[in-house]
Amino acid sequence: MTASEATAAPAPVPPGDAAADAAHMRSALALARRGLGSTWPNPSVGCVVVRDRRVLGRAVTAPGGRPHAEPRALEMAGPQARGATVYVTLEPCNHYGQTPPCTEALIEAGIARVVVAMRDPDPRVNGEGLGRLRAAGIAVTEGVLEAEAREVVAGFASRVLRHRPFVTLKLAATLDGRIATGAGESRWITSEPARRLGHAMRGRHDAVLVGVGTVLADDPDLTCRIPGFRPTPVVRVIVDTHLRTSLTSLLVATAAESPTWMLIRTGTDPDRRRAVADLGVRVIETSGADAGVDLAKGLAALADAGLTQVLVEGGAKIAAALLRADLVDRIAWFHAPSVMGADGWPSVQAFGVERLDLMPRFVRRAMRPVGDDTLSEFARIG
What we know:
By secondary structure, the chain is an alpha/beta fold. The chain is 30% helix and 24% strand. The strands form four sheets. It has a nine-stranded mixed β-sheet with strand order 11-10-9-8-14-6-15-18-17, with helices on both faces.
């Protein structure tokens, strides 16, 4: 076979069976979900190569975002990929970056048909990748399980379209919304199954963010303590206006093993900043809002650094600040079957709501038992 024959586009094939398309796309989406949290700054993409009802290759974007899913799956399929159908959760890229475009890999492999869940929201790609495939004579089907794909790529879409990561606020409280007793005791309000699920949530996000009050009160390590759950460590982010975090805290002491970043206010003590940086902490300065860090600017800085989705774990002050600024996209609320009373600490501090129409509003997407507790998930409206 000559080089030109090897790279020539195959003849278009008729559209596939809708049920088979959906089944293979579900497999691709399952792969994409597996990579969540480890592929930033790139999205986690799943790809499945099928010919004659046989799966020849399957892959997810590699940790760190390179290589992409398509060339990994094509490599697994090898020469048998010629004439095959490729199922991919996001439109293949069509621009040169650290690697050649995925569209070229698909064309060179002799793929006959590409089924895509959704177009890439990145302006460099949106529609151009599919156009390149069609121009090469490859049959393209769009929109298969698009709603599910949008959920998977929500963080990447938020970063490229809104210039901030997708923000999930996780709360663990009693039935009356209390996160600690008046004396500050909080371990443990929720059950072990709920805490394990909380670790799994960390594993599916690029970063976990807390306020300095939580660090001073609890000295958390904010790692995903489920062996083998993810190939890369979670980024730990502390919002610490004046760098009050102790140099001996777990987050600082383990910065060499699990990355620790701090969002601080511009002009904070330079000696203190150098001290934490010398211990491996990445310090990000933002201009202040009143007496604290401007969280909108802080999230924009995290997006500039490549983060696509952030899990916020506390405390009540940071939760209130994010809600007041309309920066929360999803709430994951664990409720324990207990009541503490008004002398306990609230989940969210007061943030100036004086009228009902000024409240941040969410719609419930799911609710399920987790051990003796209940997890409710809410999405922002608008």
